[in-house]
Design a protein that fits this description.
- It is built from eight helices and three strands, in the order αααααααββαβ.
- By secondary structure, the chain is mainly alpha-helical.
- The chain folds into two domains: 194 residues, Cation efflux protein transmembrane domain (Alpha-lytic protease prodomain-like, Up-down Bundle); 71 residues, Alpha-Beta Plaits (2-Layer Sandwich), CATH 3.30.70.1350.
- A three-stranded mixed sheet has the order 1-2-3.
- The two termini are 34 Å apart.
Length: 289
């Protein structure tokens, strides 16, 4: 029998929106593969491979959103909320590998420049950038609150940056007939993706290791608890994140109250303050007199 204290949180992005983004991203991949093959453009085919990795990442985020809404069970009392964090961790690793591959290929292309058909590259890359920019706009707001959505958002922004970089490279190549700009732009984009994904990896590891949330100062939290009327002191304080937007906290609380009713009043006051000031939505307090 599942536990009574189920935890459900409103989705920051609807399943329909994530489904649309996944469909559009895979459409970009297919379109670039076809055009790249017909035009014999390695640059476009490489960008299609880049978009394919990101399409998998977006689909993974979509799946994790769906599975996280599964009801809690006796064996999983917090439900499946951590699937979103696991997906974020995996996506961050994919981003890092992808960035290293881009930088590696850029280095080899710098040493051995490859002829690029500028006009084909410009048209296809501009279309890909437009679609990914639209996808990014759909996720921008939610990416500030949910690191799983932020993972998908960073993948898409990486696509936009890459596509616009390819557009610039295509224009430069058409004007100067110098193809060396292609690996230079690719290397810059690879460094940008690497920098972004390392931060994302750190955030997801911190959650999986049940570290204190970065937005909470543990000393300020302890001071706020101890300054509550009726509180003598608190100890054995733990704060961790279940998933984005779901912060949990537990501690022992010593009060100067001698009745259950008075202690409950202190308890309710603390729960309200922690939720309002620190956004801690799940608090477990063991009261001692």
């Amino acid at each position: 029998m599942p536990p009574a204290n189920s935890h459900h949180f409103p989705a920051k992005v609807s399943h329909k929106t994530m489904g649309l983004i996944t469909f559009l991203t895979f459409s970009v991949v297919i379109g670039e593969l076809i055009v790249g093959y017909l035009a014999n453009s390695l640059a476009v085919i490489s960008d299609a491979a880049h978009n394919f990795a990101d399409a998998i990442a977006v689909a993974s985020s979509w799946y994790s959103m769906w599975i996280a809404e599964s009801p809690v069970t006796a064996k999983r009392t917090f439900g499946f909320h951590r699937t979103g964090i696991i997906a974020t961790f995996v996506n961050a690793l994919i981003l890092i590998v992808m960035a290293l591959i881009i930088c590696y290929e850029a280095y080899h292309r710098y040493l051995n420049p490859v002829a690029v058909e500028g006009m084909v590259v410009i048209i296809v890359a501009f279309c890909a950038a437009s679609v990914n920019l639209f996808n990014g706009m759909l996720l921008h707001k939610a990416s500030k609150e949910d690191i799983n959505i932020r993972s998908a958002f960073l993948h898409i922004i990486g696509d936009v940056a890459t596509a616009f970089g390819v557009v610039v490279a295509g224009i430069f190549i058409m004007l100067t007939d110098i193809s060396i700009i292609d690996p230079i732009v690719s290397f810059i984009v690879g460094v940008f993706i690497l920098w972004s994904s390392i931060g994302l990896l750190k955030d997801s590891v911190a959650v999986l290791m049940e570290g204190t949330p970065s937005n909470i100062n543990i000393e300020e939290l302890e001071q706020a608890i101890n300054s509550t009327p009726g509180v003598v002191r608190c100890y054995d304080l733990h704060v961790w994140v279940i998933t984005s937007g779901f912060i949990a906290c537990s501690f022992h609380l010593v009060t100067d109250k001698h009745t259950l009713k008075d202690s409950q009043t202190v308890l309710r006051s603390l729960e309200q303050e922690l939720a309002t000031k620190f956004n801690i939505t799940h608090t477990t307090i063991q009261i001692e007199t």
